[in-house]
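Hey L., structure's done. Input below.
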Amino acid sequence: MKKEIGFIFDLDGVIVDTAKYHYLAWRNLANSLGFDFTEEQNEQLKGVSRVKSLEILLNIGKVTLSEEKKQFLLLEKNKEYLEYVNTMTSDEILPGVNQLLTFLETNNIKFALGSASKNAPLILEKVGLYQRFTAIVDGNDVSKAKPNPEVFLIGAKKLNMNPENCIVFEDAIAGIQAANTAKMISIGIGDADVLSEANYVFKNMEAITTDFLKNLIN
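Output:
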């Protein structure tokens, strides 16, 4: 009998693409402070916490603010981001995701979400995927950011699995490093050069074949 395994998915860039909404909210914040913020510069914020993202943004604009003002701007940025999130529908699920989740359900394989975002449950609700996940780990469960493996170790625990029996899907190098540290199989979604530390890399979720999944679970 094959050993029981579990899958853990990062949210942004794997299940949905909310990075564009983060970018719009950060760009508007930068503009309000008198400087521009490009999509290239936005790459620096990938997989980074909200507080650290603001620090990077202020550094780019060479702006110094009080702690109180920073906290206010973080709330404002999140408020605007949530306005975008609240307009999301199932159309925003990335190609290939539904087919993969259906394959796992058909084969009675449990899967969890492992995201640093506190908005993860809301996003899953909006796109109609919340009920399909066996477990959800979000920003309210974790205190350490990736590449610390905490988010995935909690995911394994919630799935009732040994970490080494878990397979992680990630689009950021910090997430791949977190999965590797947790002794999990890491699958990178995106640029093979950037995600070279992953056990496997696919350019997108659609590129993952049923044959690959069958080999993986057996």
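The first helix runs from residue 19 to 32. The mean pLDDT is 95.

-- N.
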